[in-house]
Amino acid sequence: MKPWLLAIRPQTLPASVSPVLLANSYCYGHLPAQFQWLVAALTLVAALWIQIAVNLANDYFDCKQGVDTAERLGPVRVTQAGLIAPGQVLFGMVASIAMAVAAASYLIAIGGWPILWLTITAVLCVLWYSAGPWSLASLGLGEITVFVFFGLAAVLGTQWLQLGQLNADGLILGCQMGLISAAILLVNNLRDRATDQAAGKLTLALRIGERLSRRLYALLLIAPFVLQSFLMFQRKLLWLALVFLTLPLALGLILQSWHGDASSANNNSSCAVLASKGFSALPSPCRLCLIRPSASGRVKNTRASPSKLR
């Protein structure tokens, strides 16, 4: 069991859980009477299995393509280390995708074609992220991919399922979580740049260089707080300032990335995952206040009918 825990990388799972939790908390505050707990549970399940599938695919394909070697500085990769047979890791990836699709099947019935296309593209990107010489990671598109899927898609997809509509709040929340997820990937790629370069995997960190990568990492961690300030002043809700309790952690991560060596990026990336989890957990009660009341003081039920969703 321990090798499989190493393979699925539990420390990375908050990156997929956080945006879904955040979006569901917002939707509950927006329309508590219409909130669907089964949908909330299945969005979490689907997000978790997609994240696990991504991790297993990355473990398998990076080993097969010679990216993961004994010289890499990051956590153990089970395929490269020989802890799990490559065929078993591949089977685990396929099984994880199947579990995610199974959870998404009900969500597709509720949300219609937008959720169907989101599911299809998510599955394709699980494979395309690491597989082949033209993988998303090798093209330097990894950070953009996680920004979209572990930020915008996770939040807006959940909002569509629960509310039947999208709004600017969802866009901002999605950007916040996506920026943090992109920062997590970028700092990992900073750590792995030597072995990635040797294997011909030209990640964004290699394409723009170490100096610009560290600056971009700082920007990715600070930008969510800038967006939070916009929300706070727009809504005049001081409770939203609770998010700034995580600002010292973000600043600490930035300083560590600038002054630490490559090996310290292991702790940095783990802390970035915790920052992602904390950023979504702290403001959850505050997100309940992001409600647009009608003239009568009650929130309007703006959820579209199932026929309109399809």
Beta fraction: under 5%
* Uncertain stretches: 291-310
User: Could you tell me the mean pLDDT?
Assistant: 82
Order of helices and strands: HHHHHHHHHHHHHH
Major sheet summary line: none
Helix percent reads over 70%
Give the total of beta strands. 0
Category from helices, strands and their pairing: mainly alpha
State the domain count: 1
* CA(first)-CA(last) distance: 42 Å
Count, helices: 14
Cα-based radius of gyration, to the nearest Å: 20 Å
Net shape? globular
Describe the structure.
The protein has 310 residues and is mainly alpha-helical. The protein has one domain (12-294). Helix content is 71%, strand content 0%. Residues 291-310 have low confidence and may be disordered.
Task: Summarize, please.
By secondary structure, the protein is mostly helical. Helix content is 71%, strand content 0%. The chain has one domain.
List key phrases describing it.
single chain, 310 residues, mainly alpha, 14 helices, disordered C terminus
Helix/strand layout:
Elements: H1 2-8, H2 14-30, H3 37-64, H4 78-81, H5 86-111, H6 113-128, H7 142-163, H8 168-191, H9 193-198, H10 204-235, H11 247-259, H12 265-281, H13 284-287, H14 306-309
Helix pairs in contact: 2-3, 2-7, 2-8, 2-12, 3-5, 3-6, 3-7, 5-6, 6-7, 7-8, 8-10, 8-12, 10-11, 11-12
